[in-house]
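Thread: Newbie trying to understand structure tokens

Hi all, I'm a second-year student working on a class project, and my supervisor (Dr. K.) asked me to get a predicted structure for one chain before our next meeting. I've only ever worked with sequences, so writing a 3D structure as a token string is new to me. If someone could post the tokens and maybe explain what I'm looking at, I'd be very grateful. Here's the chain:
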Amino acid sequence: MSSARQAGLIHTGMATLVCDLSGVTPSALAVDALARLALALRRQGSRLRLRNASAELVELIEFMGLAEVLGVEASR
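---
Reply by user tm_fold:
Sure, no problem. This is what the structure looks like when written as tokens:
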């Protein structure tokens, strides 16, 4: 069984899934979950778009080297 099906994702032809991160506490676990979600979506031909991520979460994503994978712009 694919990881996308395990996560309950079914291909709907949606090009982009927007994920509101306003209530997400910055942690390695959160970044790992986002990376896994992005991978599952990419395998289905879709992509993940992050919205309302805190500065701390963005910094952690950048520190972990996943900014490009998760579509986060480098901080200025």
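A couple of things are worth pointing out once you decode it. The longest strand covers residues 16-20. Strands lie at 16-20, 47-51. Feel free to ask follow-ups in this thread.
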